[in-house]
């Protein structure tokens, strides 16, 4: 459980609810959504949900071969482009 001081922290156990609510409110399908992830587990979850997955791993995880499953792999969010988001 996150610290009470982190009021807007989304944990893995709560994220599905927020994604589902956002998709319903905006009439989105998973195929039109993009997930920005920093972990292998997050990337796997977004791919399982059929979302486009953009990963920005920590420097020590950059060479993890499992990140090849992502649609896009960046070294930093400063590299993110519209093309990355739109495919």
UniProtKB/TrEMBL annotation:
Manganese recorded as keyword: no
UniProt-recorded Gene Ontology molecular function terms: hydrolase activity; metal ion binding
Record-listed E.C. numbers: 3.1.3.-
SUPFAM superfamilies named among the record's database cross-references: HAD-like
Highest taxon listed in the record's lineage: Bacteria
EC class (word): hydrolase
Key words of the record: Hydrolase, Magnesium, Metal-binding
UniProt name for this protein: Putative phosphatase
Annotated source species: Escherichia coli
């Amino acid at each position: 459980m996150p610290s009470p001081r982190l009021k807007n922290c989304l944990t893995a156990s709560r994220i599905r609810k927020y994604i589902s609510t956002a998709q319903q409110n905006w009439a989105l399908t998973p195929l039109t959504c993009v997930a920005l992830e920093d972990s292998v587990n997050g990337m796997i979850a977004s791919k399982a949900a059929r979302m486009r997955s953009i990963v920005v791993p920590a420097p020590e995880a950059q060479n993890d071969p499992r990140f090849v499953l992502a649609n896009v792999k960046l070294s930093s969010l400063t590299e993110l482009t519209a093309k990355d988001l739109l495919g």
